[in-house]
Design a protein that fits this description.
This protein has 174 residues and is α/β, with parallel strands linked by helices. The chain is 50% helix and 16% strand. It has a 5-stranded parallel β-sheet, with helices on both faces. The longest helix is centred in the first third of the chain and has 29 residues. The radius of gyration is 24 Å and the shape is globular.
Length: 174
Amino acid sequence: MIKRFSNLLPRMFMAMLVLWTAGALNAVAADQPAAKPKDDVVKVVYHADFADPRRFSAMLTNIHNMVSTYQAELVDYDVRIVFVSWGIRFVTQDKLAGTPFAEDDALKQRRADLLARLATLRDTQGVKLEVCGITREQIGLDEKKLIPGVTLVRSGVVRLVELQHQGFAYLKVE
């Protein structure tokens, strides 16, 4: 019995050492800002392909909070929103009548506020806006009807893949 117990002591000591080391590393990590990629720029792309203005509002809040945190911590960032399909509703004041993306009451009530918040993210916080050219072409929306500061990309989903290959973290608000 004593021999069996004495064999357990080294294993127990190692287990305690591992747990202590893990706890110490977690304590150090908790005090550090978010990890930065090799080029010292945090890269994030948000995918907006939904119709719900409440969901879009939540996404804008998330982006504002993220960017404000990075600014407060003096972290360089490149945050983008790629608008595909239903997301095109949020980068134009056009009612999109006769299209699958036509303005509904929920969007009509919130459009001005959402556009103002999006403009603030673009103009004061440097968030880049990119819209799918295929979606725009399919509904016949004139490029001039997009809000200022939106970059037209050939395919929104291809752009999402390109950005992920460039090291962008992909986020989609559910």
